[in-house]
Amino acid sequence: MTEAIVVGAGPNGLTAAVLLAQAGVKVTVLEAASEIGGGTRTSELTLPGLLHDHCSAVHPMGAGSPVLQSLKLERHGLVWRQPEVDLAHPLDGGAGASMWRSLAQTQADLGVDGRAWQRLFEPLSSRFEALADEVFRPVIHLPKHPLRLAHFGVRALQPASWVARRWRTEGARALFAGVAAHAFQSLRTPTTAAIGMMLIAAGHRYGWPVAQGGSRAITDALAATLRDAGGVVQTGRPVRSVADLPAADIVMFDLSPRAVVDIMGERLPGRVRRALGRWRHGPAAFKLDLAVSGGIPWTYPPARRAGTVHLGGTFEQIDAAERAIGRGELPRQPFVLIGQQYLADPTRSRGDVHPVWAYAHVPNGYPGDASAAILDQIERFAPGTKQRIVATAVRTTTELATYNLNYVGGDIATGANTPRQVMLRPRFALDPYQLGVPGYYLCSAATPPGAGVHGMCGYHAARSALRYLGS
C-alpha cells in the first residue's frame, strides 16, 4: 500500500493528509507539538471559561475556500458564526467606517465613497468562486477565467496606496488600508492591493465569520475527517532530519522553507536548496489577549457590534506605522487588530466578561513588550477600556516562534509578502510544491496561495503528489 508522511498538523498539513487518505494512501501525520492545529488552536488563556484563539481568528478565506467547502467539515461540527458588522475601523473623534457582508449596507455606510467601493468590489464578490479558482493557485498557470483574472490582476499588482486614490473620504481610505495592512508591508509596496482586495471580496461574499467554539473547531473537523479516511496523527513527534522520517512513498512538509533545508540538507538539489535558503521572513505579531468586563466601550458605535476592529487611524498613519516596522522600529502607534469573536459566538464568554483577541504588528524578532502600545491604541478609540480589563495573557514574538516553529521571529504569515515572494513563492517553478526529490513536497503557507486558514496550499501539494503517484 502506498504510504505518506505529513510533517506538521496545521490546516495545510491536515488538508493535504485528508486528500491523500481519501485517495487511498496510508497517511501518518507527525506533529512536533503536543497539540495539533498550528495557528488554529483555542484555549482558556486569561480566565476559566473564556475561549481565546491563539492566532488565526476570523476566516473569510476559510468560509470561501473551495477545498474546505468540498470536505463538508460541518459534518464534524464546524459551524460558521457571523457578526452583525464584519469590520469596523474607528478614527479619532468618534468617526470611522465599517464593512458589512452586505455590499449595499457598506455602500450606504461609506456615503460619497460608497459608489466607488461598490464598483470595485461588486464584480469581485459576486463572482468570487471564479476569482478564487484563479487566485488560490500558483501565479504561473493556464487561467480558466482569463477576463476575471485580468480584471483583478491589473489592480492587485498595484500598491494599496494607488488603489486607495479612488476614494475621497478619510473613512473609506482607512477602511481599505486596514485590510491591506494584513500584508505586513508598507502600503506603497506593489501587490499589497491584492491582499486587501481578496479579503474584502471574500467578506462581501461570505462575511468575516468565526468558528463556533474557537478556531480549534476547524482543526477538530479536519482531524475527524482524516480519521474517517483512515489517517493517523501522532503528536510529540519532531522531525529534525531525514533520519526521523519513517519510510514512505510521499513526504509532505507543512514547514517553513528553511526548516525543510535543515531537515533535508544535501539531499535537496542545489538550486532548490539555495532558493529555499533565500526565503525571507517578514514582520511579526505581538499577541495580547484580554478579559474585559462589559466589552470595549468604543466611541465609534459600529465597533461595538463588529467581529473585527482595525486600529491605526488614517491611511497615512497606518502606512507610516508599517514602514517603521519594515525598518525594524516599533512605532508609538502600531497597527493593531482586535477580534471580538464573542459577539458572533457568545459561548466564548462567561457572564459579562468577554475574551478580546488583539495583536500588533512589530518588527521580526522584536525583543520588547508591546502590550502598552496595544492598550494605548485601544484606549485612543475606546477611553476607559483599561479600567474594564480583569485579566491579560501575553505572547511575545519569541513565544510565538516557540509555539509554532513556522512563525520564525514571530512572522505568522510564514514569509514576507514582498512582491517577489508573493509572485514566486517559494521559488520559481512550474510546480512550486515539488522539492526536486521524487515524492517530497512543501505544503505550508510559504507556497501558493500563501497565508490564511484555507487549506489550499495543502490541496495543491496533495494534487501534485497524487499526479506523481499516477492517481
UniProtKB/TrEMBL annotation:
Quote the SUPFAM superfamilies the UniProt record gives. FAD/NAD(P)-binding domain
Organism domain of life: Bacteria
- Quick one: signal sequence residues? none
The molecule here is called: Dehydrogenase
Which organism is this protein's natural source? Rhizocola hellebori
